[in-house]
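ugh ok fine here u go
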Amino acid sequence: MKLTYYESANFGDALNPRIFKHYLPDFFDQNSDIQFLGIGSILGFGETQTAPKKVVFSSGYAYGSIPTLDDTYDIFCVRGPKTCEALNIDKSLAVVDGAMLLRNMEVNNEEKKYKFSFMPHWESELKFDWRKIAEQSGINYISPTEDPETVLKKIKQSEVVIAEAMHAAIVADALRVPWIPVRSYKGINNFKWTDWCSSLEMNYSPFQVGSYYHNTDFMREVIRGKMKVKIPNGLLSGVLSSYEVYQSAFLINKLVDKMEHIKTLEPQLSRSNILDSKVEQLLEKFELLKKKY
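structure:
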């Protein structure tokens, strides 16, 4: 059985081998005939739908095409009730995101160093210098592409996590660090956030920070992808550079004020009894999985 996930430097995806190889040691190999689908919104990806056998464990739907479920799918659990609705499966299969298993893996014994830490979505980091804004706002910055060990340590060292990246909130919640959801861009997926939050009987009401851009390769590619006509690179770069000047003159101070305001908001945390019940359900699913495979 092959452990299958979206392999990237993104924190949430990178948690897959750390968590599942801990709970299922010596369980995985490179035999792709059976693919274990774990943490991530990967059920809509074409490459995960073509495997001869798919074992679904806490995965979610959010992007791509809704899979046609047949006997090649063995669903032990999914991330939340919204995924159940999308797949038209029994809501009893909605447990919680597998990253919540860190609740039983990690001891939160780090000394608190940061009153607030902020982790943006990985695409947000490519669009704008959020690290600089965090520093100007007196907030510790956590990159979503840092080494998972470093991210975990920084979350433990924080009193409150400001989260645009969903797995910043998930891991903070698992480690009992209060968190505040924020949203900068329309591309932040409300569906998957609501899917996870509702699995723990929470609401998702992010503070709207607003969208900001720098003249980066990534940003230029995003714009090109949305335009019906081709824009020369020099012209596009010039437009973005001009916007940067406007942004610096009129918007950045307001953005820093918004970040300061976020620090006054009430953070949230799931109820411990609900979280512990969900983690226990995941552990029970592991036992069923091991017996079957």
